[in-house]
From TrEMBL:
It catalyses: (6S)-5-formyl-5,6,7,8-tetrahydrofolate + ATP = (6R)-5,10-methenyltetrahydrofolate + ADP + phosphate. One of its GO terms (molecular function) is 5-formyltetrahydrofolate cyclo-ligase activity. Its cofactor is Mg(2+). The keyword Ligase applies. This is 5-formyltetrahydrofolate cyclo-ligase. It comes from the Bacteria. PANTHER family: 5-FORMYLTETRAHYDROFOLATE CYCLO-LIGASE (PTHR23407:SF1), ATPASE INHIBITOR/5-FORMYLTETRAHYDROFOLATE CYCLO-LIGASE (PTHR23407).
């Protein structure tokens, strides 16, 4: 299927989920994350997106609690729609948030974290395939951000659903995921020998 069709399909599937289902599935995803390889948990700087409730995204609050419990440095982003760039801030007790015009909670300001320091990125998505290609909302924020990250940065998608066999219109510039975590399973897209 093509990205446009996949966006439509998965937005519709998400809309069918109840608040209770989203909570249960999000908690299951957070618990599955604990199954990830120890090399993931040896990292320090974890970039986490804050869920858009209206889009019925995976609720990342449970992941936030796991990261805080493991004493990780949590990084959150502010989007700049005119440039499609993101500024990344360290989440602290003093971080203040406000909703932007797209209902995304964003930090007002804070301690800026350079992209080069970010070691793990939890990636929002609508769909993905068995090769680790992802379909986002089509604005390109994460494509630009992930391309700026180090090659060693781990990219972990979060999804309520299983993968598609193949996304037909993948571009060379698209950055693939290393893992995708669902309520049922952790998909590993990393080559066995690198």
């Amino acid at each position: 299927m093509f990205k446009k069709e996949l966006r439509k399909k998965y937005k519709a599937l998400r809309q069918e989920l109840t608040a209770d289902e989203i909570e249960a599935k999000s908690l299951a995803i957070a618990n599955r994350l604990l199954e990830l390889d120890a090399t993931v948990w040896s990292k320090t700087y974890f970039h986490l997106f804050l869920s858009i409730e209206e889009q019925k995204e995976v609720d990342t609050e449970f992941i936030l609690q796991i990261l805080a419990g493991k004493d990780k440095d949590i990084v959150v982003a502010k989007s700049h729609f005119e440039t499609r760039q993101m500024t990344h801030y360290l989440l602290t007790d003093n971080t203040k948030f406000q909703k932007n015009e797209y209902n995304i909670y964003e930090p007002v300001d804070g301690i800026e974290v350079p992209t080069s320091k970010i070691e793990v990125v939890f990636v929002p998505l609508l769909a993905y395939d068995t090769k680790g290609n992802r379909v986002g909302y089509g604005k390109g924020f994460y494509d630009i951000f992930l391309a700026q990250c180090s090659q060693e940065t781990l990219k972990i998608g979060l999804s309520f659903f299983e993968p598609e066999d193949l996304i037909d219109d993948v571009f060379e510039a698209d950055v693939t995921l290393d893992y995708c975590v669902t309520p049922e399973k952790v998909y590993n897209f990393q080559p066995l020998f690198s």
